[in-house]
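WARN retry 2 of 3 for item q-0093 after timeout on previous attempt; input resubmitted unchanged.
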Amino acid sequence: MSTMAATVAELADRVNCNAGLVRRGRFVDLEFMLQIGDQAHYLCISNGQLTAITPGPMLMRPWRFAVHIQAEAWFQFCQTVPRPGYHDLFAMCKLGVARIEGDLHPLMANLRYFQELLATARPKPTEADHGG
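OK item q-0093 returned
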């Protein structure tokens, strides 16, 4: 399994063990597609819990919205402390290395939840990362 796929596969554990994040997403009930490079993943969320991650792509698989991120941009985003422009989904869209499509209402209504969900792919920072 590639590092990229392994990182996505770990998202469920990282999201579901974060009580604050699950509470923040308690009204989120949907499936969205996260495409990194040419690898698509369908993430199913129920009451803030990430209940399933299904690898794709799958023809005719429904999703509410899709997030497409270039593979190198995902690598940059997943750094413990990402460099400017790769720290945030919308910053990557502004750079042209990511795009969002579909029904944006659930994304925007729960933006902090989705931003933090994606950020769980990052390693936990150490004191050395903060100059300590």
